[in-house]
Write a structure and sequence with these properties.
heterodimer; A: 494 residues; mainly alpha; two-stranded antiparallel ribbon; 2 strands; B: 164 residues; 70% helix
Chain lengths: 494, 164
């Protein structure tokens, strides 16, 4: 209880609260602008958390995350363009509502259902994260290798139909992680006498390049800089009666979103899709879905905000990101030399509780922003993209530079931005590469430590039950897409 | 372009060449013996061979698809590469001018150049008023960024007058 009170005092302190308010607002702005995502906003802000207390910085990023996922619904309802991939399903019913003059009401539904989904996932986060951490506390190098191996095989889940390309992207991510000094023997690898590379590629500039600069290039090359729209938002709040009609849809979708969020690699789009389909198939009037049905809008929004709390659980308890945003958020922990995982619950319980409280407060702020300031956020869409995009490019560059005032990092941002852009041109997914980068060092160092303990015996990984479970789960993840493909082709033949 | 030379095939060939280079780099790593564990070159070599295998699989699949005529050569990124390359050149110039010119001058010039290029004036013609407006916008954005990061977050950004 004391921890909660301390966390409340910390989050509501004069130095933290403005950062959280700003974080949620910034997240909504990034989410609302098509092309700028919550991942990009978090990637850009991670370096600036360096000058903050760990709890302040990470809680501010949680605010950006919550705001960013919600913000996607604004452009989805107003201009039929999902601000974030997770709000893709929101356009189906949100935009038709806007078309019949109920844009304000659509944003109101989106705001309240995002809030319900977010709060639900927050409660589950608070109840279950500690329990998962208690189990994970017993882990040694073999178990950590098992987790890292399992995390890497999640690439199969996030690669979609491009399994080979996903695996290639992950291998390239692991290769990038190899550059610099070997973590065990300090032997240099791929440095070629260039001393700034001794410490390897700094994670944050690489991440900013892959998510921030790459998006900038993609927006430019798709001609999005010509995008401009005028929209008016009228009355925001649906009536209490209208909202109560959707209460079960919101609660069910929030729960689905949270459960999907806990599964590393699944993420918002899948949660929205599942919830939307469930709402449609169980509705007494499914024909109204797609024509501006509030239940469709609410199920998509409650689910994608439900993902936020769910995705934080594996990040905090196991050090495995639940989605792309939490993968980038891990960088903020690295900036402060904090290793997420079960030990965090004993070494920095104050930080954990601050994240819990910050998450709930961020959702409340999101609700207030949405209900009071949606008209203002809608105006952001009026800013010419030709002005906004170069501003964002400068922001990404400062972000890369700020972490250690290095001109090399400035160039790393551009180089990895170009690499990300080329990958997009050749249909290579980016998230597996990030998983490779995040889990590469964890995988290598624990594999080597475990083999040192076991005197070189690989049986060590199957003799320990928890590591065996993760290794088997990982193998199932690896084999399942191949089996699916075989079954598909057999069904076709029949 | 030859029919079989698809995006998948091109990228597979490049990755194959890259993996060969990577393996050559891995063989140059100075290995120290380490108690029963794995040496520093183990992971790079494993990754190099993995990439070789995956590139070959992609190459074969790509060729099979091309020969069967199953290739869907729709570019996920529409072609606006000229603007993209122009901006990339501007970004590279920004990186190199960042220290000598300082944040304020460099950022103002970058923003002025890019916003003038990317924005279309409402009047349809880029006249003096349009350029003055872009210059003012660039200066305001630069000043805001400087205040937020250098003053607010205490990040040390290079400035021309401090170097003189």
């Amino acid at each position: 209880m004391d921890m909660f009170v301390n966390a409340l005092m910390q989050v509501f302190s004069l130095s933290s609260l403005p950062l959280l308010i700003g974080g949620v607002g910034l997240g909504i702005i990034f989410g609302a602008i098509p092309g700028l995502t919550a991942t990009m906003a978090v990637a850009l802000l991670v370096p600036f958390t360096y000058v903050m207390q760990p709890a302040q910085g990470i809680v501010a990023l949680v605010g950006v995350y919550v705001g960013g996922v919600y913000g996607g619904s604004i452009s989805a309802c107003l201009v039929n363009i999902p601000g974030t991939p997770a709000s893709m399903l929101t356009t189906i019913d949100g935009y038709p509502m806007g078309q019949r003059g109920e844009a304000g009401k659509a944003i109101g539904y989106a705001t309240v259902s995002s809030f319900v989904g977010g709060i639900m996932s927050g409660v589950i986060l608070i109840i279950f994260a500690g329990q998962v951490a208690k189990v994970a506390y017993q882990f040694g190098p073999a178990e950590y290798f098992g987790i890292a191996f399992f995390g890497l095989t999640l690439i199969c889940a996030v690669s979609g139909e491009n399994l080979i390309k996903g695996l290639i992207a992950a291998v390239v991510g692991l290769m990038i992680e190899c550059v610099g000094m070997d973590p065990v023997t300090s032997v240099t690898r791929y440095v070629f006498g260039y001393t700034p590379l001794l410490s390897g590629f700094e994670f944050i500039p690489v991440m900013i390049g892959l998510f921030g600069m790459r998006e900038f290039f993609l927006q430019i090359s798709t001609g999005r800089y010509r995008f401009q729209v005028e929209q008016r938002v009228g009355k925001i709040l649906p009536t209490i009666g209208e909202l109560l009609k959707q209460k079960w849809v919101m609660l069910r979708s929030g729960l689905i979103g949270t459960l999907i969020g806990i599964l590393p690699g699944a993420g918002g789009p899948i949660a929205s899709f599942l919830s939307y389909e469930l709402s449609r198939s169980t509705s007494s009037h499914p024909e109204t879905f797609g024509t501006g049905e509030p239940a469709g809008l609410c199920s998509s929004e409650a689910a994608n905000n439900g993902v936020t709390g769910g995705a934080i659980i594996p990040m905090l308890t196991l050090g495995i990101p639940g989605d792309a945003v939490t993968a980038v958020m891990l960088g903020a922990f690295m900036v402060h030399n904090i290793n997420p995982g079960p030990n965090l619950f004993t070494s920095s319980p104050d930080l954990i509780y601050a994240i819990y409280v910050g998450f709930i407060v961020a959702n409340v702020l999101m609700l207030l922003y949405g209900l009071l300031g949606a008209k203002l956020f809608a105006k952001i869409l009026n800013v010419p993209m030709g002005t906004l995009l170069p501003g964002v490019a400068v922001l990404t560059l400062i972000g890369g530079y700020a972490i250690r005032n290095s001109l090399l990092d400035l160039r790393v941002v551009v180089i990895f931005g170009v690499l990300g852009y080329i990958m997009a041109c050749f249909d290579f997914p980016i998230v597996p590469m990030v998983l490779g980068l995040v889990l590469g060092s964890l995988c290598e160092s624990n594999l080597r430590s475990a083999l040192t303990i076991s005197k070189g015996s690989w049986l060590y990984f199957v003799e320990r039950p928890i590591s065996l479970v993760f290794v088997v789960l990982g193998l199932v993840m690896l084999v399942s897409p191949i089996l699916r493909q075989v079954m598909k082709s057999r069904t076709k033949e029949k | 372009m030859k029919k079989w030379l698809t995006k998948d095939v091109c990228s597979a060939i490049f990755l194959l060449l890259f993996s060969v280079w990577w393996l050559w780099g891995a063989s140059a790593i100075k290995v120290q013996s380490f108690d029963n564990g794995l040496a520093a070159d183990y992971m790079p070599k494993l990754l190099g061979w993995l990439l070789v295998v995956l590139s070959v699989v992609q190459l074969v699949l790509g060729l099979l698809k091309a020969l069967k005529g199953e290739v869907r050569e729709s570019d996920p990124v529409p072609k606006n590469h000229l603007v993209m390359l122009g901006l990339l050149a501007a970004l590279v110039a920004y990186c190199f001018a960042f220290k000598p010119l300082g944040f304020i001058v460099c950022t103002t010039l970058f923003l002025f150049g890019t916003t003038s290029w990317l924005n279309d004036p409402k009047a349809g013609k880029k006249d003096v008023i349009f350029f003055v407006k872009q210059l003012v916008i660039s200066m305001v954005i630069t000043a805001m960024l400087y205040l937020i990061f250098a003053v607010g977050f205490k990040i040390s950004l290079p400035t021309l007058w401090l170097q003189m």
